[in-house]
Write a structure and sequence with these properties.
The protein has about 240 residues and is α/β, with parallel strands linked by helices. The protein folds into two domains: about 60 residues; about 130 residues, no CATH class. Helix content is about 60%, strand content about 20%. It contains nine helices and five strands. A five-stranded mixed β-sheet has the order 1-2-3-4-5. The protein is elongated and about 115 Å long.
């Protein structure tokens, strides 16, 4: 007969008889405590599923916001193009502007070949390189107008909130166009940025580009964002409730 004198004897005995240890565990521990590992595992699984669902919702939301942002930017560019004559006359004394290039659609009829022809000749002569030609061809707007009865080009970037890159790009593309013009062509080239507001880091005195303010009807964009957010937020709430 086995004699148990202290706790160490009991531990040794249970280690030698695992089936006794299991029986003792079932007697001492409640059913809830015995089931705790399984309960915890299920909770972790539920949490993981909920987290994945929320990630999918957040991803969808970011994609929709991004798409709406692109549409808002395009709408703003089209609005700037629609009132470009008034803006350039008021802010830069440029009259009768004809659009040689639009970054999102065709230029004005009859002006489609002017800028490509200039750039092709400049590429052939080595005045500009292929990278500069490609960047200039991506400018938001390039117009040809008159200022003080002399011809003038304006290279323009359009952005709802203009950052440093917008001013740098406008100035850089204007410099490319100046070099692209043949030596006998002394037409002035200026740069401009049309925006509703400026990013806080922009120091306008650091750039040659003229800043032209065109207010954007931000409430329309925010209403579209809210319309997207409402069902997504409701879906996320329902998903969380289902898995909780």
């Amino acid at each position: 007969m086995t004699t148990i004198n202290d706790i160490h004897d009991l531990v040794d005995l249970l280690q030698n008889h695992p089936d006794w240890a299991e029986t003792l565990r079932n007697i001492i521990l409640t059913r809830e405590l015995l089931g705790l590992p399984q309960t915890f595992a299920r909770a972790l699984q539920d949490w993981a599923e909920t987290n994945q669902s929320l990630l999918r919702v957040e991803t969808s939301q970011r994609l929709l916001h991004g798409r709406l942002g692109q549409l808002a930017g395009r709408h703003y560019e089209e609005e700037a193009d629609r009132v470009i004559r008034r803006l350039l006359a008021r802010e830069m004394d440029i009259l009768e502007p004809a659009t040689l290039q639009r970054g999102w659609t065709a230029p004005d009829p009859g002006y489609a070949t002017i800028l490509p022809d200039i750039c092709t000749e400049a590429l052939n002569s080595g005045a500009i390189d292929a990278a500069e030609d490609e960047e200039l061809s991506g400018a938001d707007l390039v117009v040809l107008g008159r200022k003080n009865d002399n011809p003038i080009y304006a290279v323009i970037e359009v952005s709802i909130t203009a950052g440093i890159h917008d001013f740098e790009r406008a100035d850089r593309n204007a410099a490319v166009l100046r070099r692209a013009l043949p030596p006998e062509n002394t037409t002035t080239v200026e740069s401009a940025v049309i925006a509703d507001s400026l990013a806080s880091e922009v120091d306008r005195t650091s750039y040659r580009a003229t800043y032209i303010n065109l207010p954007y009807r931000r409430e329309e964009y925010q209403a579209a964002i809210d319309a997207v957010d409402a069902p997504i937020t409701a879906a996320a709430s329902a998903e969380t409730s289902t898995n909780s």
